[in-house]
Write a structure and sequence with these properties.
Blueprint lengths: L3 H15 L4 E2 L6 E2 L1 H27 L5 E7 L11 H11 L3 E7 L2 H10 L4 E5 L7 E16 L12 H5 L3 E4 L4 H6 L5 E5 L2 H10 L4 E4 H9 L3 E3 L6 E11 L6 H14 L15
Parallel strand pairs: 3-4, 3-5, 7-8
Antiparallel strand pairs: 1-2, 5-11, 6-9, 6-10, 6-11
Helix pairs in contact: 3-9
Length: about 280
């Protein structure tokens, strides 16, 4: 750890070399000057460019190194179709110079950040496709409508569709208003931005909502959750691997996709779907 006096000495030397004051010092505390802020922002760009150059040279020599950012949706840990821990472990074992950055985001954010280059590749259910991205189908996830053992519907035998739809539904933050109507509901009782949040609300006893069957499985087996009229309320969500067009041949992305192929047999190295899992 560098001492305050050492930092001050280095700052004085840098200011002398650049011929400008970079920071204000005094009883009011430390702060960058307007010129100091500009230099700081450019310095960050320079460091990033140096890192990119080192990664590029390593790639030329066939060495896997650098940071790869992988995006997923929440609640995928319990999904039996895709073993995220094993996948990330396999990638990291390819080289000790690979730094994995794992991001959990909404479907919209996964796609937006993939387009912006902030995410290198991602797996998720992405019903609204964005231009500029490549979508490779992987598997199908089943969602059912659930209530908890504290909800009035839990003890109601032979309930009708009308009995169910008179209750308001939990809305996901990325759903449009028409999405609830597509699932048979016109009113919402709460809004969430993650599956875990929806599960908590359902378990409270005052809400009903759709959950992936793998997330609800434990609570259903314990009798805490009830699958409501599965013949009438349920839908499937297709999960895909996404990558920005033109990036598939980047070494780190290729290495990641090779592990997907090896682990699941779902995607070949050219990005064509092979036997997507169906339910």
């Amino acid at each position: 750890k560098m001492s305050t006096s050492a930092i001050s000495t280095y700052m004085n030397q840098l200011e002398s070399q650049l011929g400008m004051q970079l920071c204000n010092r005094g009883r009011a505390g430390f702060g960058l000057t307007s010129k100091g802020l500009l230099v700081y922002e450019e310095a960050k760009k320079l460091v990033s460019q140096i890192d990119s150059f080192e990664d590029y040279i390593a790639e030329i020599n066939g060495e896997l190194r650098g940071t790869i950012t992988f995006g997923i949706l929440d609640s995928m840990l319990t999904d039996e179709h895709v073993n995220i821990p094993d996948l990330l472990g396999s990638v990291s074992h390819k080289s000790d110079k690979i730094h994995v950055n794992l991001k959990v985001s909404s479907p919209f954010e996964l796609q937006k950040e993939a387009l912006e280059g902030k995410i290198d590749l991602a797996i998720g259910s992405l019903p609204t496709k964005m231009s500029g991205l490549k979508y490779i189908p992987l598997y199908i996830e089943q969602h059912w409508l659930y209530c908890s053992d504290r909800h009035p519907l839990y003890a109601l035998k032979d309930c009708s569709i009308e009995d169910v739809t008179e209750h308001a539904l939990i809305k996901r933050g990325y759903w449009s208003n028409s999405e609830g109507m597509r699932h048979g509901f016109t009113r919402y009782s709460a809004t969430i931005d993650s599956m875990e949040a929806e599960l908590i609300l359902i378990l409270s006893g005052n809400y009903i909502g759709y959950l992936p069957d793998h997330l609800a499985k434990r609570w259903e087996e314990e009798g805490r959750l009830l699958r409501i009229m599965p013949g009438s309320f349920g839908y499937t969500a297709e999960f895909s691997l996404i990558v920005k067009n033109g990036r598939s041949r980047e070494p780190l992305i290729q290495a990641f996709r090779e592990e997907i192929d090896a682990a699941f047999g779902l995607v070949d190295k050219l990005g064509k779907a092979q036997n997507p899992v169906k339910q």
